[in-house]
Amino acid sequence: MELSLSSPYVAEYVKAQTALMQVIDPELSVNIIDLGLLYGIDFSDAGKAVVTMTLSTPYCPMGDAIQSGVVNVLKACFPDREVEINLVWEPEWNYDRISESGKAQLGLI
């Protein structure tokens, strides 16, 4: 997820991204931000935070746990917003989406 300093929601994006670093993929022991699973968050509706994200595979056995973690940390940060997850498969997740920090945690570099 790229942040734009000109966005009217930059403060919310930074707060959300920081919180979402607490959501760990239980199989890989790396947070979803460093894994590149988060594609974006829409704060344009004052009552919602719509998260667009993916999982490493459509059959990810921990997908429900990861999504629950996303909802839980965002509800804690934004108690006045409903959290909605838009799970997508395009663009398809791949190892290139993993940050340098994530690759280091996985022993890939």
UniProtKB/TrEMBL annotation:
Pfam families of this UniProt entry? FeS_assembly_P
Enumerate the Gene3D superfamilies for this protein.
Fe-S cluster assembly (FSCA)
Q: Which domain of life is it from?
A: Bacteria
* Domain (MIP18 family-like): residue spans on this chain: 17-84
What InterPro entries does UniProt report for this protein, alphabetically?
Answer: Fe-S_Maturation_MIP18, FSCA_dom_sf, MIP18-like
Protein name per UniProt? Metal-sulfur cluster biosynthetic enzyme
User: What organism does the UniProt record list as the source?
Assistant: Parapedobacter koreensis
Its lineage opens with:
Bacteria, Pseudomonadati, Bacteroidota, Sphingobacteriia, Sphingobacteriales
